Automatic annotation (TrEMBL):
Keywords: ATP-binding, Glycolysis, Kinase, Nucleotide-binding, Transferase. GO terms for cellular component: cytosol; mitochondrion. It comes from the Eukaryota. Its EC number is 2.7.1.-. This is Phosphotransferase. Belongs to the hexokinase family. InterPro entries: ATPase_NBD, Hexokinase, Hexokinase_C, Hexokinase_N. It catalyses: a D-hexose + ATP = a D-hexose 6-phosphate + ADP + H(+); D-fructose + ATP = D-fructose 6-phosphate + ADP + H(+); D-glucose + ATP = D-glucose 6-phosphate + ADP + H(+). GO terms for molecular function: ATP binding; D-glucose binding; fructokinase activity; glucokinase activity; mannokinase activity. Pathway: Carbohydrate metabolism; hexose metabolism; Carbohydrate degradation; glycolysis; D-glyceraldehyde 3-phosphate and glycerone phosphate from D-glucose: step 1/4. The lineage of its organism: Eukaryota, Fungi, Fungi incertae sedis, Mucoromycota, Glomeromycotina.
Length: 453
């Protein structure tokens, strides 16, 4: 039997996360998950083999490649010192059909994109060193060795999982006759941490809040019990937390729409945190709620707009446009809805309809931001022993389209972090925006580990 449709009041109760719940359940839940990752869980707290941070004074031009859930970016990053960079980059939308092809087909396309950049910067004949930012879980055994693990974000690439991403990419560069040598591979969160550390050496952790969601932080190498590092290993290492996989045992109770989304996803039960936070999913949660409200609460006069029946057709761009509307007649909401979905002439949305949609949007975006803040607090606690009354300067660098572009998302996060830290205006802990984190961080890492610095 179908679960009853929650009223707006009931959905408010289901999606609102109290400060107490964050402090008593979510932060301790992350803390336990980090410990399991250090001790035994191979899919989380993954060593990056990045064991140093930049000073901000490094110089030189290095290539980077960032393979994300939506886009591929290739760039030539010139480090000019004093924490500053110049970037020449090209961005390519990854065609949906390339998300399920054999790995050679995908990586040949990637190599062709890299070749386009080399032609643009007139460096096709030069030997170039590259760092790769990879937005999917990899098990690393060295700075330039990373075996692909189970993927999300709609990717299912035969021949990629359980194989070395660097080897496969280098093979594609050889096939395409381009003289690129990959010297480092990092998760995009690791790259973001390195990128902001090039600017500010107080950076201790990073997050991505975009199509997907993840985090990285600096840990003592000796903490990583599951891996036997030699006694002479560096004292610290950046770790890829893979927080998207965490939360099954401590996240808030799922709404009706969380349950539907999970059951219809390619891997039910996989990435519980990501499915409540990331840009790939929160728009779909709103769409599922709208469909349910049309059917059971007569939203839009009981008629579902054209295209609204398509899974994942309601994006976070639509959400941000709708949430930001402050007009008396919801004119901007009307514009967003009618430009993206088909309404019949006799079925124009009423102001009441539009405010209902706006309320649905707010509930899921707010929950996403609050869960993201809980993760930030847990990262601070892991490295500082507490998340309250921190005496040292601390920066948490965040990249991703939701954090950087969604209406008031970043300010909402900063406000809530301040509340749970119980800190004054002179707080030393700051969430900061990093853009192009994966791209810059991969290039900086390539510089640090290149044989020809």
């Amino acid at each position: 039997m179908d679960e009853p449709t929650p009223s707006l009041e009931e959905l408010e109760e289901q999606t609102f996360i109290t400060k107490e719940y964050i402090e008593e359940k979510i932060i301790p839940g992350f803390t336990d998950a980090y410990r399991r990752g250090f001790d035994e869980d191979e899919s989380t707290m993954i060593p990056s083999y990045v064991c140093r941070l930049p000073t901000g004074m490094e110089t030189g031009t290095y290539l980077s490649l960032d393979l994300g859930g939506t886009n591929l970016r290739v760039a030539a990053v010139t480090l000019v010192g004093d924490g500053k960079t110049d970037i020449e980059q090209k961005q390519f939308v990854i065609p949906e059909e390339l998300k399920t092809v054999p790995v050679e087909t995908l990586f040949d396309w990637v190599a062709d994109c890299a070749k386009d950049l080399l032609i643009k910067i007139k460096s096709l004949e030069k030997e170039m060193y590259m760092g790769v930012s990879f937005s999917f879980p990899i098990k690393q055994t060295d700075i330039n060795k990373g075996v692909a693990m189970k993927m999300g974000k709609g990717f299912d690439i035969p021949g990629l999982v359980n194989n070395d991403v660097v080897e496969l990419l280098n093979d594609a560069f050889v096939r395409k006759k381009i003289n690129i040598h990959i010297v480092a591979i990092v998760n995009d969160t690791v790259g973001s941490l390195v990128a902001y550390a090039y600017r500010d050496q107080n950076t201790i952790a990073s997050m991505i809040i975009g199509t997907g969601t993840n985090a990285a932080c600096i840990c003592e190498t000796s903490e990583i019990k599951k891996q036997n590092f030699p006694p002479d290993s560096p004292q610290y290492m950046i770790v890829n937390n893979e927080i998207s996989l965490m939360g099954a045992d401590f996240l808030p109770k799922k709404t009706k729409y969380d349950k539907i989304l999970d059951s219809q996803s390619s891997i039910p039960g996989f990435q519980p945190f990501e499915k409540m936070v990331s840009g790939r999913y929160i728009g779909e949660l709103v769409r599922l709620a709208i469909v349910d409200y049309v059917k059971n609460y007569n939203l839009f006069d009981g008629k579902l707009p054209g295209k609204m029946e398509i899974p994942y057709s309601f994006s976070t761009v639509h959400m941000s446009e709708i949430e930001s509307d402050r007009t008396y007649n919801s004119a901007n909401i009307l514009k967003s809805l009618t430009q993206n979905f088909k309404f019949s002439e006799d079925n124009t949305p009423t102001v009441g309809d539009m405010r209902t949609v706006q309320e649905l949007v707010r509930k899921f975006s707010r929950r996403s931001a609050h869960l993201a803040v809980a993760a930030v607090a847990s990262l601070i606690k892991l490295q500082c022993g507490t998340y309250k009354n921190i005496e040292r300067e601390v920066r948490i660098a965040i990249d991703g389209s939701i954090y950087n572009s969604y209406y008031k998302y970043s300010s909402s996060m900063s406000k809530l972090l301040k509340e749970i830290q119980e800190s004054g205006e002179d707080k030393k802990v700051k969430i900061v925006s990093v853009k192009n984190g994966g791209i810059i961080g991969a290039a900086v890492t390539a510089m640090m580990y290149s044989p020809h610095p």
